[in-house]
Write a structure and sequence with these properties.
Length: 249
């Protein structure tokens, strides 16, 4: 695959989502070569994920997050490492959060949800996706599913005695209490996200909705995985591999 073909695939996959949130929500951190053969995907670009990609023969890294400018000096260090290893890096943020195959839908798929009632969207503010099981399951089973799929412990608060049937998800930084209100308006009994504050926990307890908080990184990695598989579907000659990332959070 070459860069022109890659850009065409991204445009085709994301459609209106590509520019809906501004042109600074996706792009290349560095392009080292026009043609590449092996895509390594993960949530974050760091010196460690670049090293891991290099060890696995990756020449194009695809992530959800850029090396953000507020991580002072990280972008510059990552670019130097990409140059050293002659690697490309592409990242895509909000478009991947809100496209139908993106981060939220992918996490729903991982926990075996039966029906997605609403996809996560951005209409002046972020709104969670809503999904439902045909048959309610015990809260402990849901916690177990998440821990198995994300390969990490999650924080969980069981705030009522009913089984779990309808779930709201906003992956990543879904700690705003407005998101819990939205979940309640949609009849959800459980809210899943990737970050919390004291107020997230307090509000969920006060309103009697279950809360499960995984890491920002591993609630979102399945969306990047979905994108990588879609790129491979368009060019079966491309190899894809998940790049190991530390459970840092």
């Amino acid at each position: 695959m070459n860069i022109k073909q890659f850009n065409e695939h991204i445009t085709s996959l994301f459609g209106e989502h590509l520019h809906k949130y501004g042109d600074d929500e996706y792009g290349f951190t560095y392009i080292s070569k026009d043609e590449f053969h092996k895509i390594g995907y993960t949530t974050n670009l760091t010196l460690e994920t670049i090293e891991e990609a290099y060890r696995n023969g990756v020449d194009m890294i695809v992530t959800h997050h850029a090396p953000w400018s507020f991580l002072f000096g990280m972008e510059e260090a990552c670019i130097e490492k990409l140059k050293q290893y002659e690697m490309n890096h592409f990242w895509i943020h909000l478009p991947l959060d809100f496209v139908k195959f993106g981060t939220c839908t992918s996490l729903f798929n991982e926990i075996g949800i039966d029906t997605i009632l609403e996809y996560s969207t951005y209409e002046e503010e972020e709104l969670p996706g809503i999904g439902e099981y045909k048959e309610a399951i015990p809260f402990s089973n849901l916690v177990g599913k998440l821990e198995e799929k994300m390969e990490e412990k999650v924080k969980s608060w069981r705030n009522h005695d009913k089984p779990v049937k309808r779930i709201a998800i906003l992956t990543g930084a879904g700690n705003n209490t407005n998101l819990i209100e939205r979940a309640l308006e949609k009849g959800c009994d459980t809210y899943i996200t990737g970050e919390k504050t004291l107020y997230t926990v307090q509000h969920a307890k006060f309103k009697g909705i279950n809360l499960i908080v995984g890491s920002h990184t591993f609630t979102e990695v399945f969306g990047v995985e979905s994108l990588a598989h879609k790129l491979q579907d368009r060019d079966p000659a491309i190899e894809i591999i998940r790049v190991y990332e530390e459970h840092l959070e």
